[in-house]
Amino acid sequence: MQTLAMAKHAGKFIITKIQGEKALSRRLSEIGMTRGKIITVLSGNQANSGLVIIFQGQKLALNASMAACIYVASVSDPAQATLTSLAKVKLHTPCLVAKITGDKAVRQRLMDMGLTRNTLVTIDKVAPLGDPLELNLRGYKLSIRNFEAQSILVQEVDVS
User: Fold this and answer.
1) CA-to-CA distance for 112 and 25, rounded, in angstroms?
2) Which residue from 126, 113, 117, 149 is spatially nearest to 36, judged by alpha carbons?
3) Domains in the chain with CATH codes
4) What is the pTM of this model?
């Protein structure tokens, strides 16, 4: 796993885990910095001097010790990434929603349920016959049909 302190270059990252003191974890969650959120690094951690990030439209400066508690995975540009259908993703593989295709009514319903771009999604369970799928996103569980999962294009996130 990569920590935010290991980020030596600018780019987009997704938070996979926050580990550290209870007070630090609570403070970060109070400002909305939780698992699944996107961070844009403006200046990397050069010589452990800290880094500058953009989080939810705000520029923040983090010192190296705070950044070492935030585990992240790199997010590549959706135009360059290989997109696969959510129905083809293996169990417990974290991925980001890149695009929702299909009928307008189905797209709108899926977006109303929280499946929007750059949302971290994992498939938790699959029914014995493969339909429906139980997803974990935004801190809750959602069951969708296989044909709906086929219209959701995702990008797998490497958290190792």
Assistant:
1) 29
2) 117
3) 2-74 (2.30.30.90), 84-156 (2.30.30.90)
4) 0.69
